[in-house]
Amino acid sequence: MNQLRNIFLDFKWLVYPAIVLVFILFTIKYLIGLPGELISQISASQKSVTESAQIVSRLKVKLNTLTTLDENRSLEDLSWLGGVIPVDKQIDVIVSELRFSASQTNSELLGYTTMLGDVVSSGSGEFLISASFNTPDMPSLVQLISSLNSSLPLMSISSVQFVSGSASMEINGAWFPLVPHQARLEDDLPNHVQAVSDLKARLEGFSLVPVASVDEAVQETGEIIPNPNPFTPLVN
Amino acid sequence: MGAINLLPKRNIEKKYGPLQKNVYLLTSVVLTMYIVAASAILGLKIYLNQRSHNLDQEIQKLNSQIREQSSKEALVLELFNRSAKGREFVDTRPPVQSYSDILKSEEVIIEGWTYGVGQPQTLSVVSGSAESIERFADVLKQKYSSITIDKLTHNLVDNVWSGELLLL
User: Fold this and answer.
1) What is this structure's pTM?
2) Do A45 and A192 meet the contact criterion of CB atoms below 8 Å apart?
3) Which of A61, A101, A172, B163 could potentially form a cystine with A126 if both were Cys, beta carbons 3.0 to 4.6 Å apart?
C-alpha cells in the first residue's frame, strides 16, 4: 500500500496534464466537435448566413421597387399593352385593322374567314384569319402589307397570294390571356420598365386602329365607350 | 516508526525534475491555446447562429411586407410578361415586308406573287423587253439566294414579255 502511495506521489505531476487532456477531449466531443465536423459546420453556417443575407438584400430591393412603383404609369402601360397584345381573340379589332389598312392603300377588304382554334382552353398564341382584298396593283399590296405590319394589335402575315387585282392573305392575330402568376416571394422582380420601354421603342411608328372605325356595332349604337384599362370589364 | 524510504527524495526530483517542468509548461501552453481557440470557435458559432436567426426574422418580416404589395407585384409581372410576348411576336413574325419591299420596279409590272413561310416564292411579271425582266431579276439577287426564270413568253401581237420567276 505504501509502495503504491509512493508511486502516486512520485508521478502526481502527471495529474495536471492528464486532467487537461481529459478536459480537451471532453469539450471537443461534447461542446466543440471534431475538427472535420467543426469546419463543415462553420462553413455550412457561413454559407447559410451569406445566402440569407443575399435574400434579405434582394427582398429589400424588391420591396423598394414595389413601394415606389408608379401605379398610374403602370396602369397606362398595361392599357397600352392590352392594345398591343389583347387578352382574348379580338377578331373585330383585327378585321377593323384589315378594313382600315385597306382603305388607306386604295384596296378593299372583300371577305374573311377566321379559324379560332381551341375556344375552351385558356392557352395563348395566335388565331388565323384568311382575308381577301381587292388590290389594284403590287405597289398597293406592298403598302397594305406595310400598313398591316405596323398596326396594333400585333398581327403577322404568313402567306400572300396576289394575282392581278386581288390578293388573299393568311393573317395571325396575337393574343395572350391574363394568367395567374406563380412567383415565389424571394424571386426577383423582372425589369418591367425596361421591357415596356424596349417594346415601345420597337413599336415606334406602329398605330392603333382608330376607335371610331373599330366596330360597326359601335357605329350602330352611335356611342363609343372608351375603356382605358382593357383588364377591367366595362360596367354599363 | 514509519517505513524507511531507501531511495532518497532528491533522486526522484533529480530524475524527473527537468521533464516535470517541461510537461507543466507545455500543458499550460496547450491549455491556453486551446482555451483561446475554443473560445474563438464557440464565439464564431454563437455569432453565426445569432446572425442566421436575425436574418430569418428579417426575411419573414420582408416577406410579409411584400405580400401586402402582391397586387403591385402581379401588375409588374403582367407588364413584363406581356411586353416579352409582344417583343417575341414582333421578332419572330415572318419577314414578309422585307420581301414585299424589294418587289418594286419601274421597268416591269408585277402581276402575281405568292409568298408562304419557308416556301419558294413565285413572281409573275410583264414588261416591254426581256432585258428589263433580267435586270429586275438581277436586283432581286440582293434578297434571294436563288432566282430561276421558269418561263419567259413573248407576245408578238402586243410586244409584251411575261416571265414566271421562282425565288428561293
Assistant:
1) 0.69
2) no
3) A172
| Residues of chain B neighbouring A154 (CB-CB closer than 8 A) | 86, 89-90, 93
Find all residues with CB under 8 Å of A89, minimum gap 6, and list them: A116, A127, A173, A175
In angstroms, rounded to a whole number, what is the distance separating the alpha carbons of residues B167 and B141?
Answer: 9
For B52, the enclosing helix (H) or strand (E) is helix B9-68
Residue A102: all three cell numbers together:
385597306
The three cell numbers locating residue B1: 516508526
Which amino acid is it at A48? S
Say if A52 is an interface residue toward chain B (CB within 8 Å): yes
pLDDT in tens, B56-97: 999 999 999 988 888 888 888 889 989 998 888 888 888 887
Residues 6+ apart with CB under 8 A from B26: A17
Residue type, A22: V
Q: Report how far residue A21's alpha carbon sits from residue A10's, in angstroms, rounded to the nearest whole number.
A: 20
Please state the ipTM of this predicted complex: 0.71
CA of A131, closest CA in chain B: separation in Å?
Answer: 15
The pLDDT, as a whole number, for residue B2 is 55
Which of A22, A181, A188, A196 should be substituted to probe chain B, the one whose Cβ sees the most B Cβ atoms within 10 Å? A181
Q: What pLDDT was estimated at residue B120?
A: 86
CA-CA distance, B96 to A174, in Å (whole number)?
A: 17
Question: SS3 for A131?
Answer: strand
With a cut of 60, say whether residue B43 has pLDDT above it. Answer: yes
How many angstroms separate the CA atoms of B94 and B99, rounded?
Answer: 10
CA dist A10 and B20 (Å) reads: 11
Instruction: Using CA coordinates, name the residue in chain B closest to A31.
Output: B42
